[in-house]
Structures are given as C-alpha cells and as structure tokens.
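not sure who needs this but someone in the group chat was asking about DUF177 domain-containing protein from Corynebacterium terpenotabidum Y-11 so here u go. i didnt clean anything up, its just raw.
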Amino acid sequence: MPQHLTTTGQSPVRLGGEMLGVAEGSPVEIVADVSNLGESLLVDATVYARVSGQCSRCLAAIDEPLEVRVNDVFGITPDFITRDGVAGGDVDEDDDFEPLFVQDDMVDITQLVLDETGLTIPFNPVCDDYGHECAEDTPSPDGISGEADAPDPRWSGLAGLADSLEDSTDAEAGKDA
C-alpha cells in the first residue's frame, strides 16, 4: 500500500529557463505516493509552484501556476538496480546510466524535477502559451512591421530561372493562339 506524503519548502535551485522559471527559494509543494517494491521504492510525485518571468514577444510579466509530475524507482540496495543488457543486447561501456538510491532514508527528486521542468516550461514563453493576449503595440512575431517580405537572397538564382520559364511559356502560348 503506498504511503501518501505532502510537504512544502523552498526550491533548492532555479527550475526552468532564463525567461520563465521557478526562482530559487520560491515556495514549492510536493505531493507524493511512495510504494515499497521490496528492495526499492517507487516514488510518484507532483510538484506545485509558481513560474514567473516575462513574455519573449511583448515583455509583459508572466506569473502562472506550475504542476510537474515525476516518477522513478529508487533502490534501497545496489543489488536491485542493475544495467545488464536490455532485451539480450550488450551493455554499452559509454552508457551514463546511474541508478537512483535511497540515502539516509530519503529520496532526492531534485534532478528529476529539474529535467521535467526543463521539458515542460517553454524556453521562449509568449502570452499565448498561458491564454493571454500580447500588448497591441507589440510588433508581429517576425519582428518586421508593415514592410514587404524581401525574397531570400539565397534563392535569387531560382527567381531568375522562374522568370525565364514564365517568359518561354508565355511565348509558346502566343504561338498556339
């Protein structure tokens, strides 16, 4: 039967990117179910915090709730978790697999939360990500307002070829008429 735990504290490190994240020392709540698997523990945790930062388009402040879920197995003894060939394959010597262990009757989910937060929070957040509208005087996403799109100079050779093909097609159409 899993043991249900709830704890609150401060974030030990910054979670997320530069534009948006949970600041170090911000309040964090962890709700976890810990199940005993014999020589290991299964930890299924949800971390609640508030992310703060700014929109990368209009620079408006963003302050939204964050919910990140992590789960993993933590070995009590080193014998339980091994990496000896997956599905009959050989162990890769360069494999950086490091099993997680219970230490001093505690599990450290910091790295799991860092990884999941890095995958969850956008690197370039915009107001749309959180259901808000950017300010009306914000330039269009490409950064160019009111200017015609200039063709990419790398395609200029093809533009000349397209023009000559159109001219030859028009000339042939004129002969057929």
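also The beta strands are 3-10, 15-16, 20-22, 27-36, 40-54, 61-75, 100-101. if thats useful
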